[in-house]
Fold each of these.
Amino acid sequence: MATAPELPCHAAATSFDAAQAVVRANCAPLGIEWVALAKAGRRILAADAVARIDSPRRDSAAMDGFAVRSQDLTSDFTRLVLRAESVAGGAVPPALLADTAIRVSTGAPMPAGADRVVMHEHARVEGGHIIVPHVSGKPHVRPRASDFAQGTALLPAGTRIDPRAMVVAAAADIEKLPVWRQPRLRVLVNGDELVPPGCAVQDCDTIPDSLSEALLLMARQWGAKPLGALRVMDRVDELRATARMALEDTDVIVIAGGASDGHRDLVRAALTPLGLRMRFAGVAMKPGKPVWYGMIGGIHVLGLPGNPTAALTTARLFLAPMICALSGAGFDHALRWSERRLLHDVPAGSDRDQFLCAVADRTSDGVIIIARQEASAQMMLARADLLVERRAGADPAAAGASVRCLPF
Ligand SMILES: Nc1nc2c(c(=O)[nH]1)N[C@H]1C(S)=C(S)[C@@H](COP(=O)(O)OP(=O)(O)OC[C@H]3O[C@@H](n4cnc5c(N)ncnc54)[C@H](O)[C@@H]3O)O[C@H]1N2
Ligand code: MOO
């Protein structure tokens, strides 16, 4: 992979598509580890999950009632001798003799010879007998392995373990699963003005760091293992020392702020001695022009612009797919674009690819682009549930036209 040319990032030398392609080409799944089922939630299967047992394990009752032989039910009110009982978790009862029945609970093993369960509300118990009407229709028996048989691949590699997949894996009697390793991720924010949320009110020269927790949360949402955020001052030595520490236990470092030209030198000065190899710096996109990406050894370093909407937009477009690629879900898993109809006219696109904060209409497939787009804005993120793509040089579009949208 070629390193990026030494251009100032305001030149935005790399197209958005080329920048995404660079990240895609550099990010392969990190490796496989075996985890207990209890820890496998949200992880991505690295191999098919195969059933270790049949389900059901035996021919079983599907209803509470009486196991009978259909051939015995010759009249409208057949009288059968009631014998043993079979319950879920109990041993297989002895074979059913002619003109007898045994009580069964849902899930209980069926006795050999029985081919039907009469639901208890359809039969009448009289002493040691039951009176059974003529029944037809569903036999209410679940044959052995009728759901799945031992050896069947139940969950294909690539499945994310959600509650539904968890049912299947547990039902297959699986105790441990092979999953892709989660990328460990640290966030570094830099800026002398930044303080932890809750502390800015005391000092009007400060502002709350609004990115650390948001970026960690986004990372977790897409499958990373966030290790925390580190806040540093705008100083090369501090930035270098903190980055050196972060390099010891992470797969991905996200650096927010200090991405544009004046500051980038600071970040580059701090990280170059640590072995940073830049892949791109400056992308023809709006917002997010200063975004950059490089590697230190095998560790991915993504630089986001400090302006919060620009930071979150570039994180959504580069970090989310990076995490998906590293964690085995695939780069495109985070890039499920869909078409929606504009509910208003929009002007022609700018000279860069634009990614606009927008609101999905709840009652239609419509979308409303938020009127004032500012890379430094924060309030609009409270309602922006979509990013709308407007390619560089796009023609003006009228209400009703379709645009590509990504859940934000
Ligand atoms: N002469 C130029 N100036 C700027 C350019 C340029 O090309 N030439 N690019 C502009 C663009 S586009 C953006 S975006 C910003 C990005 O700047 P940096 O990445 O260097 O970020 P900072 O200067 O550190 O901060 C910008 C802005 O964001 C605030 N910030 C930063 N981190 C946080 C945080 N964790 N929480 C809340 N707010 C944060 C910071 O206080 C600044 O207000 O540069 C333009 N300038
Ligand atoms: O592109 Mo900056 O990221 O617009 O504010």
Note: The two ends are 30 Å apart (CA to CA).
Amino acid sequence: MVEKIQQTLRDSAAMRWTVLLLLAFAMFCSYIFMDILSPIKDLMQSTRGWDSTAFGTMQGSETFLNVFIFFLIFAGIILDKMGVRFTAILSGVVMLVGATINWYAVTESFQGSGLDTWFTNNLNYIPGFDELGISPFYKGMPASAKFAAVGFMIFGCGVEMAGITVSRGIVKWFKGREMALAMGSEMALARLGVASCMIFSPVFAKLGGNIDVSRSVAFGVILLLVALIMFIVYFFADKKLDAQTGEAEEKDDPFKLSDLGKIMSSMGFWLVALLCVLYYSAIFPFQKYAVNMLQCNLTFNPVDPNSFWATNTVTIIQYCIMLVVAAAAFASNFSKTKGMKYGLLALAVVSLIIFCYMGYMRQSAETIFAVFPLLAVGITPILGNYVDHKGKAASMLVIGSVLLIICHLTFAFILPMFQGNAIGGVVVAYVTILVLGASFSLVPASLWPSVPKLVDSKIIGSAYALIFWVQNIGLWLFPLLIGKVLDKTNPQLVADLKSGIITPEEAAISYNYTAPLVMLACLGGAALILGFILKAVDKKKGLGLELPNIQK
Ligand SMILES: C[C@H](NC(=O)[C@@H](N)CCCCN)C(=O)O
């Protein structure tokens, strides 16, 4: 009997976790590309002429095809029909194609090319969409931003397809085993990707003293090539598993259009889906502006370019410290003794303090914001473990929403009060970002494992595709809205920029972010109300959201 169990690849823990590493590393690379331009919004404005509206429209385009052409729903069908390994490779190729277009759009060679002229004169609107005000292009949008948006739209199809494929891949390899931990670990690595891009994207853009934003994007493209290689290696491992088990791919859990009806009739599902779109709309779109928001609100004293703190060696040291924080916090989940656990946590905390101190000494908004996903790396698996053993998922959704509101309001009203106070501003920024990081661990760690409690296990794939689709509506709308609100609520700055009174460099770091931040806090408020409704529905209908995943 034991011999028979040992026969398949997934029965070997080493093999299972190696497969998870392949999938998670592919997602790590994709999350790096997703936010590659976020920490260099100011450089996009000063070197490519992308104002906040152009930046926001380009960033929001990532989800356009998923939302309006229903690509995510098709992705679910492709995943069912063709299986995990085919879809993984397809998503890798789609991401790479989109990213390459995106890269070309921001290169020097695009400037003045035939494509530049064509995009300047064309694609000023999409009939039908423009009338509704939902076009990813507009008249006057810089050609580079339009072409970059085309690439980012294609990339967006690939990355969301990869998201649902990786989730199903994890289920395939970990079902009945450490599935929640595997999902939490995959999310943690994805968050590390965001932290990495916050640190490295500006470094590549400013490498050698001359600014070239396309270098950062090229770095992201290379990583997506690595992601594709990871998926190809996964392909062979997965094929071997199927050969061993004799199973045909994914035939046990097919995606059917009729399943959508079943899912849509579940009130609990809708509450979670709406909470997901509201919460994530206040996080991912914010992530794209956060570095610029800090640049606009904090007073940075220029660091002497010849000093130690201005060198790339410091960047690498700081990144290594970041890895120590992540690894120590992550490993504490697996420690056998209390001494070991607290020792690792103490190491994580001390390293985090050193990381924050270095961010302050470097006077750079990007390294200050990097602690946001970093905290999520450390505590998402810890909270996932808590949900597995103690439950309380609905309560965690409520607490996460409360923290989200507090953080956005602090950024909006308290942080600007510290303008001119270099140390006070950075301390308030760090504390708020860390609390936001805790919120961003509480919600994902409790939201995603709650979905299987709301729908039949046979239609879980369709449920994730649908929830991602609903979420993508917000992820498309809010980057765009933030950009528009920024330009509308800073009319003097926009006018001064147009008339040349201030330079693009000055304009890029002088926005007042109060209005967009209040808008994001309102999203948190709506998520909080839904959280309370969900708790009440859970109590009344016995959905089991507050119960542990692992029943003793
Ligand atoms: C697991 C979850 N992933 C998502 O929500 C994806 N739809 C990625 C969205 C990113 C869009 N820029 C997560 O990362 O918590």
Note: Residues 15-243 form a domain with the Growth Hormone; Chain: A; fold (CATH 1.20.1250.20).
Amino acid sequence: MGLPDPLAQQVLHITKLAGDKIMAIYEKDFAIYEKQDTSPLTEADLAAHHVIVDELKSISELPILSEESADIDWQERQTWQQYWLVDPLDGTKEFIKKNGEFTVNIALIDGGKPVMGVVYAPALNKAYVGIEGKGAWTEQDGELTAISAKVHSAGETWKIVGSRSHQSPEIQNLMAQLDGGTELVAMGSSLKLCLVAEGEAHLYPRLGPTSEWDTGAAHAVATAAGAKVTVLDPENPLDPDAEALTYNQKESVLNPFFLVSA
Ligand SMILES: Nc1ncnc2c1ncn2[C@@H]1O[C@H](COP(=O)(O)O)[C@@H](OP(=O)(O)O)[C@H]1O
Ligand SMILES: [Mg+2]
């Protein structure tokens, strides 16, 4: 049985096409690039971007905002009710380090909210899909498995997702406010939000810069799996009334700090 939404099925297919382009470059010996002007990262990023844009245009007339073509006027973006938000290759450090934790990200945003998203990690052969009101799944070798965020229960060790690339005193501070032990789970790219979506972690506090395309798709997966993605105030990191993270509501595409919580 496939996904309960033909559009999501098509988007999943598109992320796979982009993943194939990325893997063809990832599997090369990066040393061959030393004598060229280009880098494997740029080549993989652009190859994925082009296939995603071509394929999305063939199935939909909605505008596309991709990290690789993000110079679209705020004047124009303000007119968008729905659009595709794309990060063709998230986790560039992970790609270069060859640890496999990089992703292809496509989100459908409607009225500032991610309503459908696919995150595909080609090197891990694993995809995450979230569809508002219908649920969230992982997909591996054609097999779909429903996922859901798992709320922390009393006495359990808090599993907190952290960046492989940066740590901060604010995160230490947040961890000090939690009752019970804490364990840090390291992960690269948008897979960090997916860990909360699939119940492998309770919290992902992001106290560092990200852009909207870094989070849109995984945000859709997380919320469809029952998690929350809210704006994080470092002074009050566990505020139960924190507002949802939104998209395309301001000129800058930078996200505020945010918290993903099961
Ligand atoms: N100064 C900055 N401004 C905007 N985004 C930034 C940033 N520094 C890091 N990021 C974002 O954080 C992501 C890496 O996060 P992490 O280290 O947690 O995996 C990067 O994704 P890319 O790898 O796609 O560039 C990048 O988009
Ligand atoms: Mg990115």
Note: The chain has a mean pLDDT of 95.
